[in-house]
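Lab notebook page, bench 4
Experiment: in silico fold of construct C2
Operator: M.H.
Input chain length: 255 residues
Purpose: comparison with the prior construct
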Amino acid sequence: MNATYIQNSIAQLKTEIFMDVRHRTLQKYTGIPVLDENQLFYLLVPFLNGEEWQQEQREAAITVGIVYAALAAHDHIKEFDATSKEQQLTVLAGDFYSGRYYEILAMSRNVVLIRSLSQGIVARCEHQIKVYETEKRTIEQWFDSISNIESGLISKFFELYSFSEYIPIMEKSLLILRLEREWATYRRGQVTLMSKALEESARYAGSTYSNVIQDKIVQLKTELLQVIEYASFLQSDVKQALQARVEASIASTNG
């Protein structure tokens, strides 16, 4: 398995997701659904590692991708000026994608998957709501919330299909990527609700946003490389692909 095979697998999954949610008017004003290729890659790692991956797992993975697309559409609504046609259609796009994954789940009659993803969506929304609350939270509590937002739904999918051993790798990887995005945004002088919450908690703990973010990223990358190294269930080529992603991220950070 090489980089081309991995990219083709991601591209195929994206295409299948797009085919299930395509809508001419929504695409005209809001573009194609927003899909994070890193999330899709880690969603596919069990498949790339040769796990049993029948039509049911494939359809479930597509559904997880649609759920992320729906949530991303809602996440991209601007806090202000949400009255334009494009913004209103973005809301509708999120609702449309939501309707599609419920329709697909209903047609599949996969009640266990419906329950699992529903629980995952509720948990994710609860963690997102916390940035609007006044309750003081520690840095580690915020990291837990970010991890759930980024990887909670994939964890539910892995648990359902007995891929739980992949969860630590996926969770650490997606948390690293999100923290790196938050850090890059912060360095550009832009403030997100999450970075504001993290900065406040860091200051309350007597530290700085810069220190807590960078220290956490370094810690997670060290832990992740160890987990990958000792993961006996991983095929050598998959292990190398995972290690290469971490090392490329380290090189980019150091650069």
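Observations: The longest helix spans residues 85-108. The chain is about 75% helix and 0% strand.
Next step: discuss at group meeting.
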